[in-house]
């Protein structure tokens, strides 16, 4: 541009000279002046086109002007690994953090099947199968999947503890999954610290439980009239000491159970359980504690809408009815489930001053639902999301006067999750609370197959209940 302008000026001067409109003595001066102007203009244009190296805001603005540049900046700077795969399981995006965590360079990982690069194992070093793979689950279920317990086998064969969240990418019509994005993080340090803390709590709880049990035993002997003779004042002191040691023993036991539940060492022996008979037996065992506090207790089995009431065929003219109980089979450890129900029921009784506590059982073709309902004070809405966290207790006048470790509901959640179940609560202050437990339901054929497999493995004879009609399993 400047050169063209310079030539144009010279051409104009030449024309003026030819036409006699300019003196020849001034041509040199004019040419020199024009050259100076041209040089200044060239320098100005050059400076205008050059960005100062120190102008960070201008550079950033230019970089962010492109959507691709924005994505590259984010992917290249975050510490979380990001991997994008298509519906053929081929890696399309593999950011630098993913390379650092897995040990695979991006240029080598992109284009490979993700199962060759991203190998997950459980806490027993067993490779994930398709049912555990978070990417497979995201494709099948069309929803985000999160796994906080996995470990990744890096290219160097080193096991790295990771948390991973996989989100499916749906097609425009939302009918199919065209890809998935996995975001994962190295949590080896955090998980190692948690394990050390859990080991300390487990060891301390186990060691302290023995002397506490001995103290409790001696206090029980001291309170036994057949063993000792004490006055009323001393008895009062001993009773308070006995209650305190029982509470301390319960705390140590809960701490031990909590650490075992967190690191997968919780004893678990699942078997086929028919929930109808199981809950009926528990209701009879628990009824006394409710009656002792003056509370009524109810057991509700299913609903009329489920078709459980039919005309008695043996006496059609009488119009009498009988109840056909559906068979609700689940595969759980009955002792663990008993622990959950007892904990929820005891809480309902403790926090209900008057009214009733009811246990309900219902279900559909895929789920068995157990509920424990009370007419107590209820739970504030802001406390409900935290209720199943470790050591969390609702801060109210009722909880301050009633002892507790804050671990019971956390343990209940861990046990229910062992069986792929779900536990939650619905409550309003002043209207009581209802705790729900959903467990996967087995049909009669599945229950029979599991029992046959257990019989073949252990040699123990176990049979389905014969007192309940098998024709109404659905």
List key phrases describing it:
alpha+beta; seven-stranded antiparallel sheet; 15 helices; 474 residues; disordered C terminus; five-stranded mixed sheet; 19% strand
Written account of the structure:
With 474 residues, this protein is α+β, with helices and mostly antiparallel strands. It is 45% helix and 19% strand. It has helices at residues 2-18, 27-49, 56-64, 67-77, 96-102, 106-109, 114-117, 134-141, 188-222, 232-262, 275-292, 334-350, 397-401, 408-418, 444-458; strands at residues 81-86, 91-94, 119-121, 145-147, 151-153, 159-170, 177-186, 271-274, 296-301, 309-311, 321-323, 329-332, 356-363, 367-374, 422-427, 433-440. The strands form four sheets. Strands 1, 2, 3, 4, 5, 6 and 7 form a seven-stranded antiparallel sheet that branches. Strands 9-13-14-16-15 form a five-stranded mixed sheet. Strands 8-12 form a two-stranded antiparallel sheet. A hairpin with a 4-residue loop joins strand 1 (81-86) and strand 2. The protein is globular. It starts with a helix and ends in a 16-residue tail after the last helix. Mean pLDDT is 78; it is low at 25-32, 36-41, 50-57, 304-321 and 466-474.
Q: Averaging pLDDT over every residue, what do you get?
A: 78
Strand content: 15-25%
Characterize the largest beta sheet: strand count, sense, and whether it forms a barrel: 7 strands, antiparallel
Tell me the Rg in angstroms. Answer: 37 Å
What level of helicity do the residues show? 40-55%
Shape by Cα distribution? globular
Would you report the number of β strands? 16
Uncertain ranges: 25-32, 36-41, 50-57, 304-321, 466-474
